[in-house]
Design brief:
The chain is of the alpha+beta class. It has two domains: about 130 residues, Uridine Diphospho-n-acetylenolpyruvylglucosamine Reductase, domain 3, CATH 3.30.465; about 110 residues, Enolase-like, domain 1 (2-Layer Sandwich). It contains twelve helices and 14 strands. Strand 12 and strand 13 form a beta hairpin. The structure holds flavin-adenine dinucleotide.
């Protein structure tokens, strides 16, 4: 249908980004193709060492999935998106297709080994997530190509992650966010680290220097502080209604520190609850 209807037709999933944009006349599709009638696209299940997330799996499906809970950073993200209404309709696939620089899923899934599987008239493609995003609001998808499912490799033993965002209130996008996934070796030696930042660039920011402060070193207050400062230096936020650029940089430093601390504890096998930070709490 998308191919027949032409470039100005758009698929509709949860409608939680597309419908508000249409109401504001920022998006004017000539036709909507409602994916919600396609059966069996809402699965969230573990298969061959991967978490497979169908195109119509809602944020709430991930929030309540026992399989998703085994990757705590995924649960942190799903449970913290907006409010229950948005989580009950919005989908992870729609969020990736939208590629909104303030969306929560991209930095989280970039910390993991994630691939996007497409469907359409041409042969299905499997695209590694770092190659999927081309720019703000722009992805590799052709206009008649859909995300069929998203596959996340389940991290191995001694690996833990956490996602922390700062929000003015629940039903708004974050002001800044930090996603961290860490794998530990013996005696708290950090074998590998991934750090991605949200809302502080036109795309998720890969804080490679922060990873460098952690990988190959023993986790300590000193290495965590150095990584948090490196993340702050990597952030390139713009001043807007969510705060000044300087304010967001300070947020990044603190959010990264909190995310690393929680990720390390989870990598050690501790059960740690993580929630976003809200103004006034
Ligand atoms: C009040 C409010 C607060 C929000 N707060 C947050 C927040 O804090 N964090 C956050 O991350 N998000 C937030 N969102 C956005 C929400 O997460 C959306 O659900 C998500 O961004 C888009 O998913 P969707 O299923 O609603 O997609 P839709 O709105 O249906 O579609 C979005 C775009 O993706 C395309 N699309 C959808 N599915 C597919 C597919 N399978 N293949 C190809 N293209 C597809 C559509 O054509 C459209 O261009 C908020 C939304 C609202 C209304």
């Amino acid at each position: 249908m998308l191919e027949q209807l032409g470039e100005e037709a758009k698929p509709l999933a949860g409608g939680q980004s597309l419908i508000p944009l249409m109401k504001m006349r920022l998006s004017r599709p000539t036709a909507l193709v409602d994916l919600n009638f396609i059966p069996d696209l809402n699965r969230v299940e573990r298969q061959n060492g991967h978490l497979t997330i169908g195109a119509l799996a809602r944020h709430a499906d991930l929030e309540h999935s026992p399989d998703a809970a085994k990757i705590p950073i995924v649960h942190d993200c799903a449970a913290g998106i907006a409010d229950a209404q948005v989580r009950n309709r919005g989908t992870l696939a729609g969020s990736l297709a939208e590629a909104d620089p303030t969306g929560d899923w991209a930095p989280v899934l970039l910390c993991l080994d994630t691939e996007v599987v497409t469907a359409g008239q041409r042969s299905p493609r499997t695209i590694q997530l770092p190659h999927f995003f081309k720019d703000a609001y722009t992805t590799e998808l052709a206009h008649d190509e859909l995300i069929r499912e998203v596959r996340v490799k389940v991290p191995g033993k001694n690996s833990g992650g956490a996602y922390v965002a700062f929000k003015r209130c629940a039903p708004v996008y974050a002001s800044a966010s930090a996603a961290v996934q860490i794998t530990l070796g013996d005696k708290d030696l950090c074998k590998s680290a991934r750090v991605f930042l949200g809302c502080v660039g036109l795309m998720p920011v890969h804080a490679a220097a922060a990873e460098h402060e952690l990988a190959g070193k023993t986790i300590s207050t000193k290495s965590i502080t150095a990584a948090a400062e490196a993340a702050m230096a990597a952030a390139e936020p713009a001043s807007d209604m969510r705060g000044s650029a300087d304010y967001k940089k300070i947020l990044i430093k603190n959010l990264t520190r909190r995310a690393i601390e929680a990720a390390v504890r989870r990598a050690r096998g501790e059960k740690v609850e993580v929630s976003h930070e809200y103004v006034g709490r």
